[in-house]
Design goal:
Length: 380
Amino acid sequence: MIKGSYFNGETSDKKDVSLYYKDDGNVGFEELDIAEVPLHLINISSRIGNTPRYLSFPDGSQFETEDNAAIDKMVNTLSNDPLHGLAHKLESTKGFILFTLVAVVLFGWLFIQYGIPAMSKQLAEMLPEEASQYMGQGVLDAMDKNLFEPSQLEQQRQDELRILFNDLLKNIEGSQSYKIEFRLGGKIKANAFALPNGTIVFTDELINLAENNLEIVSIMLHEIGHLKRKHSLRATIQQFSLAMFVMVVTGDVSTSSSIITAIPIMLVESGFSQGMETEADTYSLDYMRKHNIDPNYFAIMMEKLEASYSQEYVACMEAISKESNKQSKIIQCINDAVKLNKEENGKANKTAVDYFSTHPSSEERIGRFREKTSSSVKKK
């Protein structure tokens, strides 16, 4: 006899009963005047720890019991099902639990590290251009609310750089939707980034680092490279896929929602993967060599960008913050910081600043462009 509770499936009333079973495979109840039911017609819930077991009958009634051992004995006696109790046996085996944990962690890491990026690349190539436009809508507005302030560059300077940018696009197929915007960077300082809808944003702080417009052109080409390779779209797909993966694994909808809503900020503060940065560098380098632009301009800007995060540069900028007509002094600040940065790098390995943590080594990138610098190419 197996003690438990019986529910008729029609009301919420329960009745304490005793379940019995016979050698012929039929199951019945001592206290109830109902027909016996063959075991193979009864759905028996799996054993999970010490949680109650449920036997669901064809007529919708149900029997609940905490006597797991008795249920297992009944099934083993009347049924030849080799899978019965397998879940309980596995969850009681420490070796299997450890193996499962390692397998889940390894699969999760491989999927996030390789599966999601590969999937996002394929998906980005398959999606029409309208998808990029749609995914980029509202992103800059969100960034303006959380990160940026209006540009303080003079309108004449902005117009000059837009003309420069549009001249580049004349030689680039499929760039009709590309445009450039300027913002005061604030906490993200000197930076430039590309959004999925073809918008490239330059911060005032980056523009102010340049002594020559071709230095800015080199960064424009790098960001155009991100657009041509659909890196922003791929990064957005990756973040969305990660959110869905977190939700599936943990069931935590709030965490996945937080990841999705933070995508615009991640595009700026986390940057792209090393592979994406290398692809964008390659695009910029190929364009510069094809159109007789000295690759050294990019190397110079990379040195300045890295130096702009140094304490020396920050202190120098604070010292001249209240001065007027200070562009030449800004250039002096960054040139001094670059010089000091080179000296320090020559003495010891320097930990990369946060912005460069997701990027390939700055020295490698600078060296790559300097190797392609031709002495026959004159600076313009």
